[in-house]
TrEMBL record:
Pfam families named among the record's database cross-references: Metallophos_2 (PF12850)
Record GO terms (molecular function): hydrolase activity; metal ion binding
Cofactor: a divalent metal cation
Domain Calcineurin-like phosphoesterase: residue ranges: 6-131
Alphabetical list of NCBIfam families matching this protein: yfcE
Alphabetically ordered keywords of this record: Metal-binding
SUPFAM superfamilies: Metallo-dependent phosphatases
Name this polypeptide is given: Phosphoesterase
EC number annotated for this UniProt entry: 3.1.4.-
Organism (species): Pseudonocardia hydrocarbonoxydans
Amino acid sequence: MWAAVDAADVVIHAGDWVSEAALDALEARAARLVGVYGNNDGEALRARLPEVARADLDGVRVAVVHETGSSKGRERRCSLAFPDVDVLVFGHSHIPWDSTTASGLRLLNPGSPTDRRRRPTHTYMTADATDGTLTAVTLHHL
């Protein structure tokens, strides 16, 4: 994971840091970090991180949030909640997700490199943002 962090222009973390040490380590290594707190993050992490983060990545408007609710109706719900972004990165379930809503919003959940839950492998995603377009979204298995 550290090699991927070192190679990235931007690291996005969708919450459940669990410890300030994890946030400190990523802040120290990442060229740029965009992150939010999750439901497993205590007061100290919530004081340092927003519930929703937004970034413009080479013209791609990105929002990051931990929780999006049930998978049923997720596309419609997220399109209504985030009409002004191109990509919504979310966490919580630790289950990889990649879909595009009817409105064109791309929904991405990278899974988790540390807690695979019911999944066979730990995962993370990489993507390229160029001239306002998200390309080369890849789910990596650890």
